[in-house]
Amino acid sequence: MQTDERGALADQYGVLIDGTERASSSGETIDVFDPATGDQLTTVAAATEGDVNEAVDVAGDGFEEWRGYTPAKRCRILNDVARAIRDDHERFARIETLENGKPISEARGQVTRAARHFEYYGGLADKVEGESIPLDDDHVDYTIREPLGVTGHIVPWNVPIYLFARSVAPALAAGNAAVIKPAEETPIGAIELTKLLHENGVPEAAVNVVPGDGAEAGAALSGNPDIGTITFTGSTVTGREVGKAAIENLTEPHLELGGKSPLVVYEDGDLDVAVEETVKGIFATNTGQVCSASSRVVVHEDASDEYVEKLVSAVEDLSIGPGLDDHDVGPLASASHMEKVAEYLDVGREEVGDPVTGGRVLDRDGYYVEPTVFADVPQDARILQEEVFGPVLTVSTFADEAEAIQRANDVDYGLVAGVITTDMGRAHRFARDVDAGQIYVNEWFAGGNETPFGGFKDSGVGRENGTQAIHNYTQIKNVCLDISN
């Protein structure tokens, strides 16, 4: 192990239950690999169903302790966590790059967002308020928002540290305990971040980590009857199974699932901005491995040739290489995912022909696929309709506003949509008519920790971020008093 590059990681990790890191009950482990080289980084314990059930039981005790803290105390602790993440910023960024592969500058940005999430919800921890409801002169009626108890969190591999924070921070702010099942490919950030939570005042029993595969550990967590809610971020196929398991126990699931998000470019829009936002949205952010990627462009037919020419030039200027060297585009997160993306490259060639740029799996160590653009893609093509989750972009054209809206909506997903135009009336009509949970105007990845995030249609159920997330982790109790005597 090279200390200068991998000193942020231990040689092995265990399940983390009640503050104790240990082997799984089966003794089995999962190997974690560096996507930049394909080399093994470390090993982590593979939690069993028994380990998950133990973590949930322990978290029940942690919940009783944590909910007993005053809201003001929880506020101070979560803000201490935010400061501690900032103090240890570089180590967490290197962990994210080592196990996920993304460029280190991007990883630093995600760690900053994670710290901001604990800060934001630390600020809300003492503001989880009910309402007074006017009935009549004979009654006083009010509501109380109470925590759910033990919350389950299944965190994906694409943005592991920030997405840990996105659901765990509001759950803790509302007074809940948490059991986290990180992705098999990227479990280290969750373990190290949980240790930091414990070091800064969160009770050890209140946050537990059970790394392992989805078929056993993930299924055990989503199906545990003592979970108050389950939050899952990942594929639509797996999300449906998580949701079914939760509903069997009358547990409310929050599912942030897939996307096939359109960026509609009008002829009056700034094409340089359109190209810049396209590249940011599909290639230069986690190599396209984000559910909200700008994975399909729909451009006005009068601007199509110029847009594609500018786009190809920008894409071919991108550097590709290891995340620690901070290239524009890093590797994909795993060998199996690289194989999936390569299959879509073959599908694209069969459906459309050769891409206008890119299209190769690079012959080098690690899991690298060239940024790829397919042009003149028909609406029914699989590479336009299905989520590739990699650096593969489709470009198609439209003739008028009605067709632009129709093409934007004509997929199963509805997570994000964007528009490039100088006509603000057109932009507002786009926001009104497109079926998506987030609308970006002249900028991709607009918004922030404070803005609700989630999808329509097959993109999921519920919203993360903002004050809405507190509602995910509380239940309402109504109290009515007769004061007539």
TrEMBL record:
- A Pfam entry, by short name: Aldedh
User: Which UniProt keyword terms apply here?
Assistant: Oxidoreductase
Task: Give one GO term, molecular function aspect.
Answer: oxidoreductase activity
Q: What is the lineage of its organism?
A: Archaea, Methanobacteriati, Methanobacteriota, Stenosarchaea group, Halobacteria
Aldehyde dehydrogenase domain span: 24-479
Q: What is this protein called?
A: Aldehyde dehydrogenase family protein
The family note in this entry says: Belongs to the aldehyde dehydrogenase family.
Q: Does the keyword Oxidoreductase apply?
A: yes
Complexes and interactors: Homotetramer.
Keyword rRNA processing attributed:
no
Q: Known PROSITE patterns for this protein?
A: ALDEHYDE_DEHYDR_CYS (PS00070), ALDEHYDE_DEHYDR_GLU (PS00687)
Q: Which residues form the active site?
A: E256
